[in-house]
Protein: ABC transporter permease
Amino acid sequence: MLTRFVARRLAALFVTLLAASVVIYGALHLGPGDPAALLAGGRSPDPEVLAAVRAQYHLDDPFWTRYGRWLSDVAGWRLGRSMTFGTDVAGLISARLGNTLFLVGYAAVLILVIGIGFGLLGALGGRVGATITTVSSGVLMAVPAFIAAIVLIWLFATRLNWLPVFGSGTGFTGRIEHLTLPALALAGSYIAYLSRITRSAVATELRSERVETARSRGVRMPAIVRRHVLRNAAAPVLTVSGLTVAGLIAGTVVVEQAFGVSGVGSLLVLAAQKQDFVVVQNISLLMVAAFCVANTLVDVLNAVLDKRLLRTGR
Structure:
């Protein structure tokens, strides 16, 4: 039954990625103007340059022929050549991917630890814990990532001089030091959201019949929380956690630019500014793929935790 469930999710993942690739590739042809001029940098190049671009990208071929060739190249990690940077797109992305993955992983750890911790405090910590969680989550959710970046830079880099504010660092320790502020700026609103979801899920389980029955039998509250509350509240928390971590990939665009992190997000911004559509196209597909894969993994983990999902197929 689990195998069938996983197969359905993988089929859905394939269809979603295929549809997204059509949209991303077709966007080149939906905009005004000549796609060859756009691929050449959006300027008005010489006819010889336009002819070379058309020959390189086979722009005179039918759309589906070009799309199939592009999709085959992407599957083989042959992403073409950037006309702005003068190098292979695959090399550009590979050189920056490590920094982005480290930043996303760092922010994900902060979100899971602090977000779930605050949520449990709000649900199990009485009135004081609920007040702390409500106020802190309200403040964090109201602050956009770029505003949080400004505040963190002013406080921890300018005033206190505790942490560096620019660059990605080298080595594990150097990366931790340089990426702490970007990770905090990236994780802020997600921490608030996850803490509220965790608090709501745990509070709902605390009011359930199974908990009331365990209390009437004299079972201690710590044991009730371990056996009944946390296990049954895990499904919604896991779902939101997976979606949150997947959303971090898109959030890196703003944070990497603000802190000068040499990652895929800052490369996307730079490529968009220079109208390097080949780079934008491939990074967009990469981000969509990462988001879809993360969602699929969350679905499978939920099915493992809750066997009812295998019967319903949802």
Summary: Residues 99-312 form a domain with the MetI-like fold fold (CATH 1.10.3720.10). The mean pLDDT is 82.
